[in-house]
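Z., the sequence and structure:
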Amino acid sequence: MQILPIDIHSPQSDVTGVILTGGKSTRMGRDKAALSIHGQPLFERVHQALAQVCTQLQIAGKRPDTAPADLPCFADTYPGSSLGGLHNALVNAATEWVLVLPCDLPCPSPQLLQTLLAQRDGVQAVIPRTRYGVEPLIACYHREILPQIETRLQKNQLRLIDLPDNMKIRYLEEQDLPSGWRRALINLNRPQDIERLHSPPPVVTLVARSGTGKTTLLVKLIAELSARGWTVGALKHDAHRFEIDHQGKDSWKMAAAGAAVTAISSPAKTAVIQCHELEPQFEQLLQPFTGKVDILLTEGFKRSSLPKIEIHRQTLGQSLLCRGEYDDPSLIAVASDLTLSLNVPCLDLDDTASLCNFIEERFLT
């Protein structure tokens, strides 16, 4: 299936965005909607994501305490199940289509939501389906299915995942979903889920002699891992002084005037420039990535204890750094255009997929 480019700056009026709040948060032990991630309640994160794609919004579940006064809130006619929440959404929406999201998503993605909405033609529901299963709580549904939903509720058949076979459902597979879909589908059920989200990401650093192609391989790995749905961070270590500001720019003028930290922010991105006399410890550099990426790939840091993949090219006629110049115990693999006999795996430098398989198996599963 070809996914067309998405304009996330155009909210749609023919669909109602519905926040599902009917859960009891039993496994979490406290109200999930009010949990704070990066200083913002989960409910508000979901609310903002839906507001980017839908002009009409409402709450399914008796939770007026969570929302602004102008956000309609409807109690479930059939409380106690996700199917009851979907029934609520379909009954009370002013549009034929609803786009539902649970209130416990830490990383809701407007791009994923727009991808779902773009695939509604000719079907009654659009639902993500990945190797981990079907995601019926992050999906869009047409009001035509309401009679079938009511019949199932009256029979006490409450599993939303067991949708009727005669429904016209379009499942979006992994290759149909935008980058970052893995984090966009995460929900928080237990306290350990929050701890995992706040834990620093695994780090892999690429090292090599100058001119071997660290950046080239790094870019390929980022592209491949992103295509597999992972959210990837990147960090380059520069042993020399570098300048990201340019003379005459506003941020340069601020720094020249004495600002120790300057920042530029827009709706799409933020850049922070901080001067320091001593190079920060790696733990400090890791902080901006924590909770925001699944893995951090770095270039350089060859004297660190970070897990390393060394790049080697036979054509350059150079010896290995981590098994030649010194024996580095943090070396986990070598990526080379030559098969080498080593005490760590030697991977094909030109086989990006296999390199990503190695990283996934070692750090992401």
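The CA atoms of residues 73 and 238 lie 53 Å apart. The longest strand covers residues 12-20.

Let me know what you think.
H.
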